[in-house]
Structure prediction request, 358 residues.
Amino acid sequence: MINVKNSKPQISNSLLPALRPYSLPPDFWSRQANTQTESFEFTPFGIPARITANRSGVLSAAHLSARRFSLPPTPPIPDPQPLTPIQIQLVVTKTDTPAVPANLPEQLQYAGVGDWISLSAGPWGHAFAHLPTRTAAAFLSPALAAETRLVSRYIIDHYLLNFILTEWAMLHASCVLDPTGQRLILMVAPHNTGKSTTALYLLRAGYIFLADGMALLRQRGSNFVVGGYPIGEVKLRDDVLALFPHYSGQAVKVREQRKTVINLRAAHPDGLAETLFSPKSIQLCLVERNGFSQTEVAPLIPAEAWPTLAANSVYWDIPERLDHNAATLQALLESASLYRLKIGSDPEGIVSALSGLS
Prediction:
């Protein structure tokens, strides 16, 4: 019966079964089976992040990701703006799929609409995220969930970086700190130019290794707060690895090349910058090879360096974020010492040339 009270019709519970044309399974959407029962929290670049999962084993990928991002120092650097927390949910489904192919990273497909971005791994899984609220969900087949490195690098890291880069400017660079920890050296160059090799020579000479991939920067008044990604590792081609025979690691494929991921925490546990910092000075070097043994250094002006920086930064299709990133890089050009670094083949000459920069 329909009871009328205060002109608002109500349906008696006794009629509900009759209104259903068919019976749904108790957990039609698998939402109960996908309940997030496990969690892991950390603070990449000072932003609270919570990774949850419906199975404990898959969170090993989150622990791996946490080691690749700069963490806040103790005591933390104050942030003038409230930070929106990051939430990533990992759902291991019951989908039965074949083994994950070695070239899965090359098969990933990316799409987006408005504030939403998505990632598809074909039958092995899919993920989506909402940029303004920094929330993401990834649905993984058991076969993909078992691939800790892939889930960490191509799903968790992917969304963490997209969320972080809404506030931090990014520069593709190999970066080290001088032994005092006060002078930051940013080395920018095309792939296979030698910036990773140069960073390793400096690390072995007593410099502090920040990252061989991305330098992330944020302005704090007239200074910069700097962090890196990925922390604690470097990827080397086979010919470069031959220069450092004492290093070993896991082989991966990067842009049609075979590289080896070296765990620098094992090789140089005291030589890594793990936390955010504010350097007293920054030296930005555009790196190229000169074909000789001797390394050459020449000063640059901002107009000469800007095209290279623009080509080695993140591209935003949102004008406001693109402008924010560009403004930070412009401020970097105006405050840093700029050099053209033509590296030679003599390792000691490379270290000597960079040690002599002022």
